[in-house]
Amino acid sequence: MTKADFLQLLERALSQLSEEECRANLEYYSELLDDMLEEGMTEAEATAKLGSPAAIAESILQEMPLSKLVSTRMKPKSGWTPLAIILAVVGSPVWVPLLLAGVAVVAALFVSIWALAAVAVVVVLALALAVIAAPVLAVRTAVLTLPLGLLLLGGGLVLLGLCVLGGLMAVELCKLLAQLTVLLAHKIKGLFIRKEEKL
Question: 128 with 163: CB under 8 angstroms?
C-alpha cells in the first residue's frame, strides 16, 4: 500500500473526528511514514509495519472520551435539519425512556460486577477476624479443657489456610472483574464509533 492510499484510508476511518483532530492524526502518521522512508524502507514496508488504517483509527477512537464520541456520533455531518429536530422532539416520549432504561441496565451491570468483588473481600476479612480470634479462644478454652482448646487451635489453623486461599482467590477475582469492566467499557464505547464501509 502506498503512503497516499494509507493516509486516505486513515482519513476515511477517522471521519468521525473533528477536522483539526483528523488533520493532526494524519500529520502524525504522515511524519511517521516519512521517517520510515528516510530510514530506507519502501512505502509498502512502512505502511505494513504500521498496520491496518482501520485498526489504527479504532485505537484512536477508543482513546477518545465517551462524551465526545457520543456527540460526534449523534450529530449529523450536515447539522440538524428542522425535520430531524421535530422528529427528535416528537419521538422523545419513546426514545428518552428507552435511553434511560439502557443506562440503568449498564449501570446495574457494572454495580453487580463490583458487588461480587466487594463480597469476596468481605468474606476474606471475616475469615481474617476469625483467624485472629481463634488462638485467643483456644488459649482461654485450653485452660478449662485441653482437648477443646487444641480443637479450637486446629480450627484456627484451618481458618488461616482458608483465609490465605480466599485472599488469593479474591485478588484474582478482582483482577478478572477489572479486565471485564474494561472490556465492557470498550464494547460500550465501540457502539459510538462509526463503522465506515470498506473500499
Answer: yes
- Give Cα separations from 18 to 38, 64, 124, 186 (angstroms): 30, 12, 49, 21
- Written as nine digits, the cell of 31 is 511524519
Any idea of the CA torsion for 20, 22, 26, 28, to the nearest 10 degrees?
Answer: 70
Whole-angstrom CA distances from 24 to 2, 34, 46, 148 are 20, 15, 19, 75
The rounded distance, in Å, linking the Cα atoms of 95 and 60 is 29
Q: What whole-number distance in Å separates Cα of residue 13 and Cα of residue 92?
A: 31
Query: Which residue intervals of 64-145 are DSSP H helices?
Result: 66-74, 82-90, 92-144
What's the pLDDT score for residue 74?
52
Angle at 4 between CA 38 and CA 55, to 5 degrees: 95
Give the pLDDT confidence score for residue 73 in this predicted structure: 56
Residues 187, 125: Cα–Cα separation, whole Å = 34
Grid cell at residue 7: 493516509
Q: Which helix (H) or strand (E) holds 59?
A: helix 53-63
pLDDT for position 196: 52
Q: Per-residue b/e over 154-168, b at no fewer than 16 CB within 10 Å?
A: eebeebbeebeebbe
What is the rounded CA–CA span in Å between residue 68 and residue 60?
Answer: 13
Residues of the chain under the 50 pLDDT cut: 197-199
Pick from 101, 95, 10, 100: nearest CA to 58:
10
